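Recap slide: Lipoprotein, sequence and predicted structure.
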Amino acid sequence: MTKPKGLTALWLPVFLFAGCSAHNDDVPNRENFTAALSRFLDAHGDMCIGKVKWPIDISKDEANERTANSLQLPVLEKIGLVHKQQISDSTTRYTLSDEGNKYYLHKALPSMAANGAITMHDGDLCYGKLRVDKVIGWELPRTVDGVERTVITYTYAIDAAPWTKDADVQRVFPVVAMVVRNGGTLQLKQLVVLTKGGWEGEIGFS
């Protein structure tokens, strides 16, 4: 998934197979890849902001340095997702409100580091769910370690939380704004592998 937290906008050379008419589950065609993407996004299409552990404390030094948390958490407080508490002269604590807890998913969610390493978390504060809009194309399938795989290029639709429309949210979470704004136009990619049951999405990149 692509990075805002798992997403990448891509324009890649792809092989288009619009004329494929076979219906076997293992055939690389638009119908099978759309079905595989739909299943994958249903399980893994949650879009989150990367705030996995709560409460979050902000020191005066962080506030002076204008770190991401020091800029973003006051906005989340403004829209009612968190509560603020001064726990010492130098530290402010932010805790999820009842409303914020509605958007915290308690499930295994991946994030990707700059070096490409995938880390799984037990939950995250999430702002939307991706759905398949349209499969644009895919790379020529190849076999790696005995497994046939390819990378699909597609556009997405997103069911976004109402608070993503807030101007301050869009300002301090530019990736969120970009993902929500570009539903239906931004091209993403997804690795799929051929299993006994047909093509299936896989967390990671080729």
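Residues 30-201 form one domain.
The radius of gyration is 20 Å.
(End of recap.)
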